[in-house]
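Supplementary Note 3. Input sequence used for the single-chain structure prediction.
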Amino acid sequence: MWKYPSENNLFEKFGNYARITGLIFVALGLVGIFYPVFMTLATVTFVAWLMLLAGLIAGSFTYYSNKGDVMGWIKSFILIIISLFLLYYPAGGAATVGLLLSIYFFIDGFTSVWLALFIRPDKLWIIWIINAIFSFIMGAIFIFGWPFTSSYLVGLLVGFSLFFDGIALLIGSSIFTKMMR
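The predicted structure, written as discrete structure tokens, is reproduced below.
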């Protein structure tokens, strides 16, 4: 049914696409690192457009599948209203994303401590404790400066994430390129 390319062709394509994607991610990451407020607004706008699209799709699905489904209409309506709010008031969206990131960092910190205690006889348990400490620090930075720090911290973190994802893709593409030789 499906025709898969040969393994060598697959690695070659992955290497090429990973290199291009990696360069784009590194460039976007640098934009986020050097212009974090811009990246925060871009992130909130991107999320808002995704929510608007999801609301429209949910509404059309409800319309075509069951017009009497009140919960389907409510879900669609809420997604569209929130997305329009984020598009017209992106600062409020940045504050919300910042609060969600702080919650994420605290949960990550607690789970890292739990994992460290679980593997404690192993030598690597200290790495998880260090990860937990950094997660608690990031969560505290977001909370103590919230909502004002969200305007640049969200973009800065997205920038760092894109930058390091791009570096990982570039390294991965070079590994696959060497495998092809």
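The mean pLDDT is 84. The chain has one domain: 11-180.
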